[in-house]
Amino acid sequence: MSLDLTFFIILAIMAAVSALMVILRKNPITSAMSLVLHFVSLAGLYLTLHAQFMAVIQMLVYAGAIMVLVVFVIMLLNLGREEKMAVRQSARAAIGIGASMVLGALLIWGLTQVMRPVAAGSSQAMVNGQIASVGKALFSTAYVFPFEMVSLVLLAAAVGAVVLTKRNLK
Amino acid sequence: MTQTDLLAGLAIEIVSIFALIIMLTDALVERSTRLCETLSIVGLLGGLAASAYAHLTMPGQTAFNGMIVVGGMSTLYDAIFCGAGIMTVLLAREYLTRVGGMFDEFYTLLMMSIAGMMLMGHSADSMPMFVGLEVMSICFYVMAGLMRNKLSSNEAALKYFLLGAFASGFLLYGIALVYGSVGSTAYSAIAAKALSTQFPTLFWVGIGMMIIGLGFKVAAFPFHQWAPDVYHGAPTVVTGFMSTAGKAAAFSGFVGFIAPTMASGVPGLEKAKVILALLAVGSMLVGNITALAQTNVKRMLAYSSVAHAGYLMIGLAAGNAAGWTGITYYLVAYLFMQIGAFAVVGILERENGGNLTVDDYRGLARRRPGLALVMSLFMFSLTGIPPFAGFFGKYYLFNAAIQADLTWLAIVGVVSSVISVWFYLGLVVIMYFREPLGEMEGGEASISSRTALALSIIGTLLIGLIPQAIINIAAR
Asked: Which candidate, A93, A97, B26, B435, has a CA 20 to 30 Å from the CA of B132?
């Protein structure tokens, strides 16, 4: 068994188990922490695919920023031990499970229709996911204009947050 | 990145840079409202000039590695966005000061949202389109909540934000799926893929999700539920801006990504056309019939804007050159009449949010004859009565549908226009032939508001008189 496959199996099991923990645990903090574990194992999977940039971004954005936000929300809602989220056993749950299975099947089937695998270890596979090539695409070749405009998104959000929350604006 | 690239994107760059200048002015200068106002208008005029320059010197050229395209319809989109911006700036100070939402940051957000819209109008690729949409949307979420002391305004901002973020998710997921099956985000590459004989499911699921995301942004049925609450709760000048420029931007994105695919004339596209036609029918009927039941003028205009999204979608469903120019023409016409109507509503509105029901408009012709006359003119145009701009807009769209063998769609359009006569002309009847009830105060129409109203009237009349001029620019 190759090293790649070993890592894949370990990380895949970790990802699947932690994803299940997210929805099966009753305590929201445990769910949130399982989600962190899930994100970390996904980042590991990206690494085995030579997608270093994706792995780093996954850690920074999901495991870092978004999870901090989730934990903050849980903290602010102040869920005590008694107020653990009630698990609803209703027709709604069945519909939800059914819908997600249909969506999952549709996506898996759709992906198999368009799979265009790049041979493992080929030069393209090695280069594409590197931070250098992503940086080149962003700054020098294709995406420089949209990339610069993204700064307006961040600026607009910052200005908006100030306008909507600052006390006694003038 | 070369000099040509920078020149092609000059209009967007000028507006963005002015947004930043205004932000700094607001921070550094004391009592800067008037200065910000002037700077906004200068920036928007500069954007218009740069866009006209690009239209004349490099029509149809792409820049930044095929990310943006200049000339033709994008010039008209720029004119719509900058025009709407100028009229909104002229109306804003007087109104926002009265209702208590006057922050100088308004001008920064307005300019940024216009930069985002222009990026959408110019995009030849899904990536800049999405970035532009996000710039615009984030500014809108904030602008909807500018009246911080009013619950309805807060509600509007929150609802718009939550639902809008959800819709953006749909759009982005759609773009990702299309990218996954095509291997490119460029519109031309997407069209080429649609031309190939195989139709991978993933590709069509992606296109469907993009239609859902953009359908939400244009407030088309069945993704329109946010529109009445948001349009009602937001400050009236912002509503006027969102429902014209915002809708135009979303449609520019729609046309941009769908037009190359439709132009290829693949047989499998018939299904997509049917779906778009059904969305159009739903929007027109639901919008107009629900508008019948409204007693609040702002909500009535909000529901009727859903119907107008329906008329515009006829052009998408037709999917031919006449459809695209029809959409562009209608967006220009709609800009003037809708902003004008909301300007009148804003002038009449009281500080506490009064004077918004249809009953408050009873006998308006006796109390404020000028405003009543102007409002009637916009109502006639919104109904689609010749010789106003609204008539020719509908004429071009219905004509496009007939050319595309969708005569039934044109008939539904005419029927729903007839339904809209009831509430549009109903308002005129109430203003002219009913006795006034209760008190009527509201703001004075300041000189800048009068200028904005005059601009909308001139636009509504002039475009109705010389429709061919607009069509010629769009076709270039």
From this structure: B26
